[in-house]
Amino acid sequence: MSEEIKICCFCKSGNLKLTYSDLHHPYKKDHGPFDFYKCIGCGSGLTLPLPEQEQIEQLYDSFSGGLIPAIKEIRDKNPLTTWYNQCIKRALKQVVNTTEAFSWLDVGAGNGDISFLLSEQFPLSSGTSVDFHDRPPLLDRVKNINWVKTDLNLDGGLGKIEKERKFDVIFLITVLEHIMWPDRLTGDLVNRLKPGGCLYITVPDYGSMAARFLKKRWPYFLPGEHLCIPSKKGMRIMLNEICKSSLSAVPTKIKVKSAVLPYPLGYYTDYFGFGRLPPALSNRTVYLPTGILEAAVARR
After folding, report:
1. Confidence of residue 3 (pLDDT cuts 50, 70, 90)
2. What Å distances lie between residue 181 and 6, 140, 230, 285, CA to CA?
3. pTM, two decimal places
4. What is the reported pLDDT for 157?
């Protein structure tokens, strides 16, 4: 374990309450034990001390495409295209540059689903996709995407992308909860926005009704994998402090609110083991409040 520093990475409060101890990952049973705290100041959830880098690498080596194998199988059978398109639409609404030749960065791109949709819908755009593994086969079908293999949890996780490079829109889609120091990564991304650009984030909300009610049964509660999970209050405090220190002379607009993800019904029935539905039902989009927040920083 790394050296324990009991401070909230979202609001910098040292008023933390131990919520769970001796936790292990539900898939990789030897990944642990971990202690999990709740920040009394902002309501965010924190793994303290953080796992060692080697532990995290071993965890992801046991996965399939960056996901627990069973979850990847469910996603492959039930593509989340509607959700990804929702992310793209909501992010681009915040961007001042409305021409199709905009630049974008997909951080923690995974299988490349959002990157592929961006390339397909905006062929004049130029994209950079970042994750810890090799370029996924899906992106071999498109040419306007630069793939960068880098570990976001290492110091300078975006260091392979020159700091001078700026982007019109940056996507961070259910990635921040995997990051050891989310404030550092988010600060780096805000500094990479072009004037008029937007950073768009989705991340589990530890202050949500779903998280409070389901507790350890909350699907986003994954000890040793989802390390730091903000509340809306924690996310808002972090973004305000980052913008104050990085963009103090630049007008910015910050939005933080609850979000409901449009998932195929088949995703839920497969996840909870209810059996396979007929395609007409399986592909139907449903909206359930699973406990997600969305945040945006728009640089004016």
Report:
1. very low
2. 13, 31, 12, 34
3. 0.94
4. 77
